[in-house]
Amino acid sequence: MKSSFLQNAIASFSTYFVKTYRITILLLLAIIAIGYVTYTQFLKREGLPPIEIPIAILQTSYLANDSAEVDLRVAGPLEKKVLEVPEVKSTLTQSYPNFSIIQIEFVSGYSSEQGVDALKDELKDTSFLPEGAELNYMTINAGAVDGESDLLFSLSGEGKTTFELQDKALFLSNKFSKLNAVKNSNATDVLIERANPFTGKTVIQKEGYSRVGLKEDGELVFREAINVGVTKKLDSGIVETSDQVREEIKRLENEGELNGYTIAYGGDMAQYTKDQIQDLESTALTSLIAVVVVLFIMINWRASIIGAIFIPTVFFATFLGLYLIGYELNTMVLFGLILVLGLFVDDAIVVVESVDRQKRLGKKGAEAVTAAIKDIGIADISGTLTTLLVFIPMALISGVLGDFIQYIPVTVIIALVASLIIALTTIAFLSSFLIPNYKKVERKTFLSKIGNVIFNELGDLISMASKKVGQFIGWYVCKPLWATIILIVSLGLISGGIYYSTKLKFSTFAPPKDANSMIVQMSFPDGTTVDQAEQIAIDAENILVENADDEILEVDYFASNSTQGYLFVRLTDFQDREKTAPELVEAINDDYSEIDNASMKASAYSAGPPDTTEYKFFVQVYSDDQALLERAADELTEFLTDKEVLDGEKSFDPAVDYLTTIARKDGERFIQVKTKISDTQNSGIIIELQKTVEEEFNESKLEELGLDADQGILFNQGLESELMGSFDSALFFFYIALAVMYVLLVLQYNSFSLPFLVLLAIPFSFAGVFPALFYSNNELSFFALIGVIALSGIVVNNTIMLIDFANRERLSGKNPGQAISTAMAVRFRPIVITTITTIVALVPLSLADPFWESLVYTIIFGLLASTILAVTAFPVYYCIIEKLRFWKNILGVKIKNKIN
C-alpha cells in the first residue's frame, strides 16, 4: 500500500510536467540561461581550494649572535605572552643566533588572519622585549605560492645590483597595491638595515636570497632576482587578479619603466588554473560526447539527443547551486563535475530507457511516462539517495585533506540532486514526445533499411540480449550444480580481490606518476650563513641543469634563507616528454645525495600536498637538561640507524634537530630525532616504526634515561600525521554511511536480510578494485579510499533496481528464480547502459591527469567487476536469501501456532 502510494505520487509529479509542458520548457530555458551566465560571468576562477589553516608565524629579529641569548631575552618571554592569548592553542618556538620563529596554532574556528589580528591586539605593548628586537607577523595561506602570497613574480635584470632590484621591486609592489583586485603587495627584503643592540650602529644584513632561471636561446640561464608577492582580495578570483597585474606590468613596460628588467611569472598559478580549466572542460566535452554515443548505440538517436540536452542542463544547474553557496570554480570542483558526469547521467538513462520500453509495449505520450515512472521511480530515487549517503559523510572528513577534498562531495551532491529533479521533470517531458511510438514500417530501399538499423534498431540488439540473459538466469538458478559453481566462482573472485588488497602498499597520499612541475626543498645545518646557503643553492641549480635541462622551462626561488631554500621548477608538458617527472626526480636526488653540507630533495609537484622532505619519521624528546637531551638523542639515533621495520624495509641516516639551537613546544624545550625510510611511499613503515620505538623506549627505558614516562617522548609525523588523521576520518564516516544506508534500506524493504543483498554489490566490486590498483602500480591511498567510498554509492544502484523489480514479481506469485530472471530481462539494459556511460565518462579523466589515476581506476574497475557479478552471480544470492526468508516465515508460523 505504502509502495503503491509512493509510485503514484512520483508518477503524478512527473506527469504534471509533461502535461504543463509550457512551464517545463520555460524552466529548462531558465536553468540553461542563468546557469550559463553564472558560469561565464559570476563564478570566480581559482586554482587549488583556499584552505583555512589556523596557523601563523611570529618572527623576531635580534642581533645577539647567540641562540641562548635570543631564547632567554626574546623568544621565551614572547612565547609566554603569546600562550596567554585566548585564541592561541599551542606554540612551537625555535631560537637561532640572530632571530627566532614562533609557529602559532589557533583554536578551531580562527583563520590565520583572524589569529594574527588577535595577537596584534594583545601584543601592542612590547616593552618587555629588549631594545632592537623587531616583530614580524606572517599569515599562512595554504593555497598560496609561498604560504602568504596568491601570486609571486620574480624581478631580475642582467647587470643589476641587489639594491637596484630591490628598489624596482618596491616600485612594482606599490603599483600592484593600487589595483582593484589586489589586497596588498610586498617586495621581498633581501637586504635589511638593522641596529646592533650592543654597538648601536646600523648594519646592512642579508636575510635571504632569490634567483630565477629562464630559458635563453634554448639554455637555462640563472640570475639574481627579487620576489614580488601579491595577495588578492577575498571577492576576487586568482585569474582576475593575475590579469590585472599582468596588464599593469605591460603598461609599465610600454612606458619604459621596466627597461633592462625581466619579469618571470613562475609563481603565478593563474595560468596553471586557466590551463587546468581548459583541460577539464575538454575532458568534460569528451565525456559528454562518449555518453551521447553510448545512448545512440544502445537505445536510439532520439535518446542521445535527450542526453545531449540533459548533461549541460545539470551542469548549469550545478554551477548555479555552487554560486549560491559561495563556492568558486577550482580544481576540486571541476574534478567533482567530471566525476559526477558518470553518475548523474544514470537518472536520465533510467527514465529514458523505461519510457522507451513502455512505448515498445504500445503506450503513448503521458501514459507511457506515467507507467515508466511508476515502474522505476522508487528505485531511481532510492539509488540516488544511497549515492548521496556516501558523499555526504565525505564532506565531513577532518584534517587538511578533508578541507581540500570537501569541494568534490559538495559538488557531487548538488549535481545529483539537480539531476534527479531534472530527470523526473524535464527528461520525462522530452521522452514523452522524442522517444517514438513504435510501429512496424516497411522499408523499401536498401538505404532506408540501413538507416533504420543504425538510427532505430541498434538498441533492439541489447533488448534481445536482455531477454537472453533473463532466460539464462532462469535456466541456471534451477540447476543446483550450476548455481553452486557460479556461487563458488563469485566468492573466489571476491576473496581474490581481498587478497590483492593485502599486497598493496599503504600510502596516505601517493605521489603523482607524472607532473608538469617539480619542487626542490633544501635544508641547511645550524650555523650556515646566507651566502653559504646561496652557494649551495647554486650547486643545486647546476645539478638540475645537468639532469633535466631540456625538460625545464623555468626555475623560481621562494622563501629562501640561511635555514632553507625552496625552488619551483616548471617542466614541459608531461605528454611531450620522454622522461616522467618521477624519473627526473630520481636522477636529481641521486646527485643531491652527494652534497654533504645540506639536505636536499626534489619531488614531483601536482595538486595536493607536496612530498618535500627526505625525513619521514620524527620523535620529539622533552627536557630542560641539555646533557639528558644529548644522551636521549644518541640512544634514539643508534636505535634508528639501519633498523629493519617492515618486509625488509628500514630506517636509516637519522639526524637530530635543535641540539645547538633551542626549540620549545608550548614552553617546554625539546629536541627532534628524525630519520629517513627506505620506501617513502609506504606509510605502513611509519606506523610500524612508531610501534617499534614505543616498544623499545617503554616506561622503564624512559625512567632509565631520566625522562618523564608520559611526556618524555612524543611522536609527531607532521604532514603524515595530518594525512593519517584524514584517512581515519574517511574510514569512520564510510562506516557511518553504510550503517545509515542499511537502516534506510530496512525501512524501504521492511526486511533485515534484503538490505544485505543490496550491499552485496560493494564486495562484488573488490574483485576489480584491488587487482586494478596492484597491476597499475597504484597504492592504497587516500584517493583510492575516496574512490571506494564513491564506488559504494554507485554500485548498489544495480542491486536496488534488480531487487525492486523482483520483489514486485514475487508479489504477483512468481517463485524466486522466475522473479529474478524476469527482473534481469527487464533491468539488464539500463544496468549495462549506466555502467558503460559511467566508465566512458571517467576514462578521459584518467588520461588527462595522472593525479586522478588511482581514484578513477578504483571506480572504473570496481564498477565493471560489480556489474558483471551482479548480472551473473547475484541471482544465486537472491534465490538463497528468498528461500531462507521463506523457511524463516514457515518456522515463524509454526512457532506462533504452537504458542497459540
How are the SSEs ordered, and which strands pair?
Elements: H1 2-19, H2 21-42, E1 52-61, H3 67-83, E2 88-95, E3 99-106, H4 112-122, E4 134-141, E5 151-156, H5 162-177, E6 182-187, E7 191-195, E8 202-206, E9 211-216, E10 219-232, H6 238-254, E11 262-268, H7 269-298, H8 301-324, H9 331-360, H10 365-394, H11 399-405, H12 407-434, H13 446-476, H14 480-503, E12 517-523, H15 530-548, E13 552-558, E14 564-571, H16 581-592, E15 599-605, E16 617-622, H17 626-640, E17 643-646, E18 649-657, E19 662-665, E20 668-677, H18 683-696, H19 699-705, E21 713-715, H20 719-749, H21 754-759, H22 761-775, H23 782-811, H24 816-848, H25 853-872, H26 874-899
Helix pairs in contact: 1-10, 1-12, 2-8, 6-7, 7-8, 7-9, 7-24, 8-9, 8-12, 9-10, 9-12, 9-24, 10-12, 10-20, 10-23, 11-20, 13-24, 14-22, 15-16, 20-23, 22-23, 22-25, 23-24, 23-25, 24-25, 24-26
Overview of this structure, please?
The protein is of the alpha+beta class and 900 residues long. It has five domains: 1-42 and 299-440, Multidrug efflux transporter AcrB transmembrane fold (Up-down Bundle), CATH 1.20.1640.10; 52-141, Alpha-Beta Plaits, CATH 3.30.70; 460-512 and 722-900, Multidrug efflux transporter AcrB transmembrane fold; 517-605, Alpha-Beta Plaits (2-Layer Sandwich); 617-716, Alpha-Beta Plaits, CATH 3.30.70. Helix content is 59%, strand content 16%. It is built from 26 helices and 21 strands. α24 (816-848) packs across α26 (874-899). It is globular and about 100 Å long. The two termini are 29 Å apart.
